Structures are given as structure tokens and as C-alpha cells.
Amino acid sequence: MEVLKEKVEEEEAAEREDAAERAERGEKMMRLMEVRKEETTMTQEMLRDLERKLSEIEVSIPEKPSTFTKDTIDISKLPLSYKSNTPKEEHLLRVADNFSRQYSLLCPDRVPLFLHPLNECEVPKFVSTTIRPTLMPYPELYNWDTCAQFVSDFLAMLPLPDPLKPPSYLYSSTTVLKHQKGNCFDFSTLLCSMLIGAGYDAYCVNGYGSQDLCHMDLTREVCPLTVKPKETVQEEEKAPPKKYAIKPPRDLSSRFEQEQEMKRQEEIKAAEEKRRRQEEERLMEVDSAKTDPLHGLRVHSWVLVLSGKREVPESFFIDPFTARSYSTQDDNFLGIESLWNHKNYWINMQDCWNCCKDLIFDLGDPVMWEYLLLGTDKPLLSPAEEEDNGANDDDDVENLGKEDEDKSFDMPNSWVEQIEISPEVFETRCPNGKKVIQYKKAKLEKWAPYLNNNGLVCRLTTYEDLECTKTLEIKEWYQNREDMLELKHINKTTGLNIDYFKPGHPQALRVHSYTSMQPEMDRVMEFYEKARVDGLIKREETPKTMTEYYQGRPDFLSYRHINFGPRVKKLVLNSAESNPRPVVKIIERFFRNPAKPADEDVAERVFLILDERIQLRYHCREDHITASKREFLRRTEVDSKGNKIIMTPDMCISFEVEPMEHTKKLLYQYEAMMKLKNEEKLSRHQAWESELEVLEILKLREEEEEAHVLTTSIYDTKRNEKSKEYREAMERVMHEEHLRQVEAQLDYLAPFLAQLPPGEKLTRWQAVRLKDECLSDFKQRLINKANLIQARFEKETQELQKQQQWYQENQVTLTPEDEDLYLSYCSQAMFRIRILEQRLNRHKELAPLKYLALEEKLYKDPRLVELLKVFV
Amino acid sequence: MHQLCDMEPRVMDDDMLKLAVGEQGPRDEAGQLAKQEGILFKDVLSLQLDFQNILRIDNLWQFENLRKLQLDNNTIEKIEGLEKLTRLVWLDLSFNNIETIEGLDTLVNLEDLSLFNNRIAKIDSLDALVKLQVLSLGNNRIGNLMNIIYLRRFKDLRTLSLAGNPIAAAEDYRMFICAYLPDLVYLDFRRIDDHTKELAEVKHQYSTDELKHQENLMQARLEDEQARREELEEHKAAFVENLNGSFLFDSMYAEDVEGSKLASLPGVAELMETYKDKFVIICLNIFEYGLKQQEKRKAELDTFNERVQEAVQENQAQGRHRTAEFEEKHLLSLSTIRGESELTDIETKIADQREDIAELSNALMTLEMQLVEQLEETINMFERNIVDLVELFIENVQSLMAQCRDLENHHHEKLLEIAINILEKIVKGELDEDLPDDVRALFVDKDTIVNAVGASHDMHLLKIDNREDELVTRVNSWCTHLVDKIHKDEMTRNRRRVKEIIQYGDHVQGELDSLECGDILD
Predict the structure, then answer these.
(1) B373-425 pLDDT per residue, tens
(2) CB of B366 within 8 Å of any CB in chain A?
(3) How far is CA B27 from its chain centroid?
(4) Contact assignment for B26 to A671 by CB distance below 8 Å
């Protein structure tokens, strides 16, 4: 132990040294590498120790410690605003420098401000102008939680080059998004831009965070998915005793005894509580064994959302790495240097000795928050203080000069381009579509949809121990599966699998919990009863029984319980499948059928098949506490003469709440029994069918598991091949249609107008001539066309006649083939002639109409209308 | 017309019915049972009596539950003897000699009526058959198309056959029926297509519209009347009917001969006017107060009923739970006893079960007694409250009525004064106006006029008193009735429950006993 402790100290010392060294040199080097360097000088034993330690501490640090260096960024494509400063920006930088100088003079003991780091083009840019408020076109990104989740998923985390200092570079969101990685400042700048765009009152914060926070280390956090939502026990409000409420019966039990009992209970409870607390404390100790030597010095950047806008009831922090929200009192946030949004920059003038717990986020108060620019819209003051402010106006007079100077200046527009995220990238989310988060006793893996061919999008593995060796349970979420599987829950300790399905499974399955896929084992299947014809809600199975629950059936069946006996060994002839287990007992329960009187409405019937006994229990009458019963003994007996006894009074024992006459009759009982016999057969058949269905579902499930086909939405234009084809076809049709229209719009006057001298106004005479020429030309065309058709017609006719003549002459000598040839030619020729004839007729009919239409068109032509009007 | 006409008509006697019932009853094994036990007429659901040459329908009164009755192909001349068969759904009287439709007024459940091939000339007397769906009247003597309009009142009528009637020969026959019976689906066993329907509608639109309008008017009038009747009923329930106006005042003068005579005296008209106004205002006060009180009483009764209901329900739930629990255990132990072979074991088990039964009936009885006690207390409380309410109501009404009386007294004094003045004038001969003779006859001397005015006054007071008495007696009797009923209901409930518990206990005991006997026999 001694050695170990020493080693830890040594390590810590080394770390501290390193940090100091790095702070001096300001090099972009990773701490891990340094530590590794140290490792080489250690003994094997120490190494193992250290390794174990390290594996605990630095799980989430990426293997490749890469910041993105300048040479990886292609700055040639970036717009001009990235590469230079406008005069206004220059002015702003000067103001900022001035402010910074004043600040360092006034507060010499505070670290220099983070005001204008260099961007990717080595140009100093003011931090506020790096925020580019953008409203994203995705509805998912409209709320802060999903937005933060997106940022944390989308970007890969890089540690700060120097954990004790803000970075000297702050890249634009464009670059950060392109490379999908960044440090905490990049994260919060991007998130802040999106949140402000969505209407939140959000700010980037430069401050100090805990080690876990800065390293995105969630191994000490409980996974949010494993936390069960607390069941809110709604205690039913006991209505005050109303008028005429009956008094409860007198309580005759001893109060003393009750008190004694209560005392004893409390003692037991207290003891338990104590034990629990001790246990907790022990755990806590284990948890917080290691402390961070750089506690309170690690620079971090996160987002502050102030209350007021977008119905945010209370201010809170968002850690952009993990997308978790924290209250402003949280222990992980150790202090704030400054914060800014796209309009202004504020410096915290409050003491952070007690983390951020005592900070007041009233940015309008210059005592607590020193502002850089006198903004046009002063951030909110709480209403009570607003009045104060009014009173204090006189005291601020001395500041007026300074304010006036600033007033002339407001924040220049952002130099960053609009944030753009393409749908593909948005869907892929994580870099390479995959992300792993390690939580305390849990591991969460995420994938982009369609990345895994079985539709897996998320997997949560819960472990029993902190070292994550023993798996407790696995939860897998799926998307876009054709079998509608949504969630698979595997409990490793009990071996219980639970599958959850969305509506739409071919068998309307909702939940399927099982330990093995073999039939006749313990399993529960729940169904979407609305989607099933038989209204089955749930089917529970044990090796010997099957219980089914129904809802909304026309026969009011609500419950069926079947007991199976041991399978009878049959001859080998029959295959195993067609050997159902014998049914021993069937219990069926029914809902009340309001159309029947209670005495005739069966509530429960039990078929004791081996005993040949049928028990009926009827529904209870409204104002009764006992229900009618009837029991039939189905044994067929033979009387002394050898005749079959059909029915005897002792074959039916009945209890009736209100004895009725007709039910005493043997005939009635006989008929009832016959009916029940039939129904028993039906029920047994049902039981058999249920068994078959289970087999079928199991088979189907196995097939689905093997095939795991994914579906694509018809709205998913990229993946859905069918819709893509359809769309393309539609586009083609549209294009063709367009071409045709262009053709149709040909200018019929153009050739004639071209003959006239250009640029001159038409005279009336010219117009008339133009019109006549156009018409006559059209007439000529029509005639030509008619002639053409006529000519073809005649040609065809002549040809045919010639052929016929030839046929007449050679009829005797023709071979059958030739004759066939001739006949087919004839029919074709006739067809052609007929078509030509039709076309000719049609042309004759339409020609005058077309002519008139053109004439009218010409009269209405805007170029001629003025000139021709006189003649009309 | 009938092949059987020349045969002797037969009488529907017991033998014939028994034979028919026996023949049409259950078959095979069930038939044997039926024969063994005999079938009661009231259990018969359907009866077929065709080709029996029946002249007169008779002896059917026992078939209370009959649903379907076939009396076709007989020689029946008059529809009768069917009054008791109120459950009848299906009635076939085709191929008979019926001339008028009658005797169907009690068959409110009838859905299918066949009167095919009879001698009917007019469709009527079917008003009671509100559920009628199928009506067959083919081969009859209906000659007037206006008979169709009578059928409009059957909202469920879907199938009608009228072929073979004189009207079917009319060229407009189909169109007319389609137009006037738009809900009809089958006419003369053929489906009416939509096209025909449309044509018919267009053709007869004018007259059908008018008919519809009239029917609507009639409907509206009926509804109005219904509403008015309901309102009056409501007022009656509040005991203040006819007080929301001048009814009482008018009734005071209705039988008052002298009063109306005196009303014609100069100056009396104005007096009457103000008197009436004031009187009516008081009446309205009473009326409104009455309604309000009625609401209060109703609310009180409702809360009471609700609470009692709740208590009873809860108690029942407990009882049911207890019985269900017991039942389960009982069944289990019965089957174990059945399976047991050792006699001593059986006996101990039976003894245990006996104890359980006793315990159950005790528990149930305790529950019931507890409920009875609780309810008694509540009922008494309610009784006190409701009596208080009623008394308050009576008191207030009486004071208002006293105001009426005061007004009347005042009016009487004024009237007397005027009358005496006039008398004096008449005596002095100073009267300007002429008085009608019968009025002048009153002014013979002072006694006469005073008597006349007094009589009128007495009459008025009597009317007011009567109204008040009526109100008070009715509200009091309502109150006593209500309380009595609550007590009685509670008592019957209690008795029923006790009976139920005892019966159940007996049954379970019996089951056990029979088991014991069986075992001993075995």
C-alpha cells in the first residue's frame, strides 16, 4: 500500500510539473503522452499499478491525441470575411484591447481575458462575432435538449491544448462542423449559435470546471437511461365526509396495541435506514477516493441559458460535451471568468469561492457583471431591481462619458457563415456514425440509423461492478425494422429476454418476453388488441398452462386458462407436431353482457375435461352478493333396463339466487348441457389453435431475426429506391411536357414579322397584309397536308389494286405460302388505307376549324389587335 | 279459392294445440325429455297452424312468449284472440278470408306481418305496430292509392308487397309508392333501384313536400304540447302549478257573480287593475319560491340517494368479496373430500367445512346488520331534514298567502266604500251614469249591497284558502310518502339480503350434505 501511495503521489507530482511546464511553453501536447513517457522509467509492478489507475481515470480520452492543426484545414475555400477584418471589426478589436488594458490595471490579480483568439486563418476575431445565431431547419433541433444532444453527438471531443488556459485559437463553426471535432470552446460556440438561433437566451461561458467535466468523463455518473423514472404515487384525495355519508363501524381494536406495533415498526425501519446510510457512505468513500490536483484550475467552456425566453423557467447550464443540463448550483462548475453572446461580453465581478453557487445571473447589474459594450438591449434586470436602477441613475453620471463613447458602437455582424448541416450528415450524427459513452457501471453505444444492417441504433450495457466485467443486462434499441422490433431487453442474470415491438407487426405482437425460443416454455406475449380480430391482449405460458386475456370481444370473453396434462406417447406413425398435449381443464371468464339478465349471463365456466364436469358461475345481480351457479355432470349412464339415461335431475346441480320455474325443467337443462358440450369442443379447439399460433409466431420471429429486413419510409427520398424511380420518372415526364409546351408556344407570326424592317411600328396596312399572309400560308399548309394524305392514300390503293390484279392472274399457280403472303399483305394494306382515309376525313373536318381558330387568334394577337380592331 | 273450403271448419281446441306443439317441439333425445315432462304452452316460442281449416282464432291466450305464429291457409274471417301474444314478432295470416285489419293493437313488437291473399280493402288499424318492417298485403282488394300515405308513419318499414291489388294496376303505382315511402327498400319482392327512387321523387315532389310540411307541423305541435305538459308536470311536482300568472285571480272571479257585476261600477275597474297586479306579483313570488324549494328538496334527495347507494355498493362489494373467497375455498375442499378415501378424514374435513359455512354466514349477516344500522341513522337524518324543508316551505307559502288575503281584505274595504258611496248617490239621485239593471238591482238598500260585496269577498277568500290547503296537503302527503317509501325500500332490501344469505348458506350446506350421503352410500 505504501508503495502504491507513493507512486500515486509521484504521478501527481509529475502531472503538476508537466502542467506547469506546459503552461510555460504553451505547447499543444497531450498530457497522456507525457504520462506515457514517465511510464517507461517505472518498474513493471508500478507500471501495472499505474495502468490500472489510468484505465480508471482516463477512459474517455481518445486514443489519437490530435488537435487539429492548421495544416489540416483548407483555408483556401473560406470566404473573405474569414481572412480579414472589416474596419468595424478592427475598431472592435481596439475597443477590446483598451478594455482589456483597463481591466488588467484594475484587477491585476485576475487572468487575462479571453477576448479575441485567432481563427483558422490566423486572424484575431472577437469571440462574440464568432457566434453565428442560426435557426436550423430540423424540428429536432428546436429545443435545447435535443440541440445539445446533437452537438455532443456530432462533434468528437478534443481536450484543450493547455488545460489551464483558454485556447489561443477559436475556429469558426464552419470548420468545426467540417472536421466534426473540437474543444469545449468550439462545442459551446456551436451550441450557443444554435440555441440563440432557436430563440433561447443563451451565453457561452469561459470558466472552470471539474476534471470529469473537462475530460467528458462520465464514468462516475449514473447513466440517465438506467435511472428509472420515479413513480409518482398519487394519493387519492380523500373526499371530505359529505352530507348523509354513513358513519364507519366502530373501531374496536386496542389503540395501545396499535401504538406499540407502530413503535416496533419504526425501530426496525430506523435500523434499516442506518445500515443503508452506512453502506452509502462507504460507497461514496470508494467513489471519491482520488482528488484532482488541478481542481479549480481547469479551464472549461459551457453554455448558460437564462430564464425568460422560450418559456425557460429557471436559468441553467448545459455542458456541451455531454449535453446534460445542470442547475447553476452544481458542484462541477467551479467558477466563471466571463461570458458572451453574439451581442456583448460580460466579465464576472463576483467571487467564486463557493463555486457558482452564489452567482447571480443578472447581467444588467454592472457591479456583478462588467460589460464590454453598452448593448442596445440591456439584458434583463429583475423587476424589483429595475426601480433601484432608476434611482441609481444619478450615481451613474460619472460613468456617462464612457457609456456615451461606447453607445456609438455596437457589435459587428458575425464573420462566420451560416451554419449548415446537410441532412445526410445530420442523420449520421456521430463521426463515422458511431459513438460510445462510458458511464458508471454502464456503457452506451450509439449508431446512426441504417448503419447496422440489423437496424441497431443504440445499446446500453449495464454492469454489476465498477470495472465493467460482469454484464447485468443489455438493452438494444432498433429502428426501421420491418418486424417493428423497437427494443430488446436481455437480462443476463435471469436469462429473460423481452422484445418490444411498435404497432405493425404481422401478428400484432407488442411485447414478447421469454427465456428460450422453444415452445411450451415460460413466456409472455402481449399484443396490440385493436389490431387483432380475436381481441387478444396477452398470452402467458408456463410448461403446463396457458392463460389468455381478451378485450372487446362480441362474446365478452375476457380470460381463458388452459391446463395441459402430460403428453400421451403416441405411436411413431404420427409426427410430433400433430400430437397436441391433452387439455385437462379450461377456465373461461366473461365480461358482463348488458343485454342479458345477470342470472343468464355466465361469468365463469370451468370445463373439467377428465372429470366430465362443467361448472358455471353466473354474474352477480346488481343488488346481490351471491351469484347463481350450475354444475353439470356429463357422465353418460345406463339405467337398469340398459337404456341410455338422457338426463336426470342429479346431473345438474344448480343454485339460483332467484329460483325460476323454467330452469328446473330437465329439457332446459338438457339443452343447456348440449350447448355447453359443443362449446367445450370449441374451447378445446381454440386451445389447440392458440398453441399452433404460438408455434407460428415463434417460427416467424426466428425468421425475422435471421432476415432482419429494414424498411425505408416513402418520404426518405434517398433510400427508397421505388420512390426515387417514381420521382425521376415524374421529373422526366415534366421535362417532356415542358418541351412540348415550348413548342406549342411557337410564334406563328415570327416568320412574317421577320420580313418587315425591324424596330418599326406596324402600320395598319402592314398589319392587314401580315394577317392575310399568315392565314393564306396556313391555308396552304392545310391544303398541302390534305394533298399529302390524299397522295399516300391513292398510292396505297393503286398498290393494292396492282397486287389484286396480279393475284387474279396467277391465282391458279400460287403456292399456299404465296397465297398467305398475299392475304396478309392485303389485310395490312387495307388497314393502312382505312387509316389514311380516316385521317383524311378527320383533316377535312378539322381544317376549317383550325383555320378559324388561327384567324381568331390573329385578331386577338396583342401585336395586331390595335390595328385590326377597325375592321372587326 | 281454397281447396279446403268445403271441409268442415275446425275449432282451435286444446288437443289441436297440444298436437301442434308436440309435433313442432324438440326432437330426438330432447323430444323424449319433452314428452316425459310435457311442454307448457307459455314456453313455446313458435307455432305453426297452417292448413288446419280454422275458422276462428281461439285458445291462444296461454302462449305468452310466442314469437312466431303461422295461421296461413285457413278460413279465418276475423283477426281476434291475439291480444295476449304481446311478444309476437312474426305473424302470418295469409290465405284467409279476412276483410278488415283489426285486433292487432297489442302486438307492439310485431315486425313482420303477412296478410297476403285476403279480402282487405283498406289499410288501417296498424298504429300500434311501431316496429313493423315487413308488410305483405298482396292479392287483396285495396283500390285507393291514398292508403299508401297511411304507411308513412312506420319508420322501419322496408319491405312492402301490394301486387295483385286493384291499385297495382294503376300506371303510376310504383312511382307513387316510391315517392311516398322513400325509406322502402323492397317493393313487391323486388329491390327498388336508386334511379327509380330519384325519378319518383322528382315526379311527386310537389305533393310529397306538402305532405312533409304538414307532418312536420304536426310533429312540432305535438312536441310543443309535450313540452308544455312536461312543464306543468314539473310545476305540479313543485306544488305551485298555475301560480305563474293570473290563474288564481281569474278563478276567484270566475264563479263570482256579484263580483263581476260590481266590477262595472265606476272606479272599480281601476281598483281591480291595481289589485290584480299586486295579487299576481305575490302569486309569482310563491311560484318562484316553490320552484326553488323544489330544487332544494330534489338536491337533498339526490345526495341522500347517492350516499345510500354508495354505502350499499361498498357493502355489497365486501359481501361479494367474502363470498368469492369462500367459494374458491369451498370448491377446493369439496374436490379434496371427493378424492379422499379415509372415512375419518372425510368426517373431519366435512366438519371443518361446516364451520367455514357457519363463519361465512355469520360474517355476511354481521355486514348486513352493520349496514342496516348505518342506513337507519342516515335515513333518520334525511327524514328530519326533509321534514324541516317542507315545513319551512309551508310556512313561507302561508305567509305569502296571508299577504294575498290582506290584499283581498283591502280590496274589499275599498269596494265597499265605493259601493256605499254609489248607494248614497243613488239614494240622493245624484248618479250621473246609467247602471245596468241587474247591477242597479243590488243597490236597493244598504244591506243588499253590503251582502253582495261580502259574498264576493267570501268567495275570494275561499278560493285563496282552498289553494293554500291544496298546496299544504299535497306537499305534506308527498313528504310522508317519500319517507315511507324510503323506509319500505330499505326494509325490502334488508329482507332480500337476509333471504339471499340464508339461501346461499342452505345451498352450500346442501352440497356438503349430499356429498356426505354419497360417501356413506359408497
Answers:
(1) 989 999 999 999 999 999 999 999 999 999 989 988 998 898 888 888 888 88
(2) no
(3) 42
(4) yes
Q: Please indicate whether, in this complex, the C-beta atoms of B323 and A626 are within 8 angstroms of each other.
A: yes
Buried-state track B261-272, b at ≥16 Cβ within 10 A, e below 16? bbbebeebeebb
Q: What whole-number distance in Å separates Cα of residue B128 and Cα of residue B125?
A: 8
Interchain contact B336–A (C-beta under 8 A): no
Contact B4, B51 (CB under 8 A): yes
Average pLDDT of the segment spanning A248-277: 89
3 state SS of A538: strand
The cell numbers describing A523, all together, are: 413466456
CB B179 within 8 A of CB B208: yes
Residues 6+ positions from A757 with CB-CB distance below 8 Å: none
Q: Tell me if chain A has a CB within 8 Å of the CB of B31.
A: no
pLDDT-derived band at A309 (thresholds 50, 70, 90) equals confident
Q: Would you call A242 an interface residue with chain B, using a CB distance cutoff of 8 Å? A: yes
Distances, alpha carbon B351 to alpha carbons B362, B399, B509, in Å: 17, 72, 11
Beta strands in A349-403 (DSSP E): 369-371
**pLDDT tens-place string over residues B121-164:** 988 888 889 999 999 999 999 988 888 889 988 989 999 999 88
- Give the gap in angstroms from C-alpha A302 to the nearest C-alpha of chain B: 60
> Smallest CA–CA separation between B280 and chain A, in Å?
38
SS3 A490: strand
Per the DSSP assignment, residues forming a β-bridge with A182 are A157
* Dist. CA A823–CA A800, nearest whole Å: 11
Q: Is B382 on the interface with A (CB under 8 A)?
A: yes
Chain B neighbors of A617, CB-CB under 8 A: 327
- Rounded CA gap, A699 and B192, in Å? 52
In three-state form (DSSP H/G/I as H, E/B as E, the rest C), the secondary structure along B294-336 is: HHHHHHHHHHHHHHHHHHHHHHHHHHHHHHHHHHHHHHHHHHH
Residue A509 to residue A501: CA distance in whole angstroms? 6
B26 closest CA partner among B17, B16, B36:
B36
**Rounded Cα–Cα distance for residues A211 and A163 (Å):** 10
Give the count of beta carbons closer than 10 Å to the beta carbon of residue A2. 6
The closest alpha carbon to A613, from A557, A569, A676, A546, belongs to A676
Any chain B CB within 8 A of the CB of A238? no
Please answer whether residues A462 and A226 qualify as being in contact, where contact means their C-beta atoms are separated by less than 8 angstroms.
yes
Q: How close B233 comes to chain A (CA, Å)?
A: 29
C-beta separation of A501 from A509 below 8 A: yes
Mind listing the pLDDT tens digit for each residue in A353-409? 777 777 888 888 888 888 888 755 554 444 444 444 444 444 444 444 444 444 456
**Average pLDDT taken over every residue of chain A:** 79
C-alpha cell recorded at residue B58: 281461439
Q: The sheet that has A345-348: what strands, in order across it?
A: A324-327, A316-319, A299-306, A201-209, A333-340, A345-348, A369-371
Question: What is the pLDDT at residue A410?
Answer: 76
- Backbone torsion region of residue B521, taken as left when φ is above 0, otherwise alpha when ψ lies between -120 and 50, otherwise beta: alpha
CA nearest to B327 within chain A: A626
Contact status of A634 with chain B (Cβ, < 8 Å): no
- The per-type count for chain A, helices as H runs and strands as E runs, is 20, 27
Residue of B289, B275, B274 lying closest to B244 (CA atoms): B289
CB contact under 8 A, A667 and B26: yes
On the question of pLDDT at A457 being above 90, the answer is: no
Q: What are phi and psi of A20, to 5 degrees?
A: -60, -45
| Complex ipTM value | 0.73
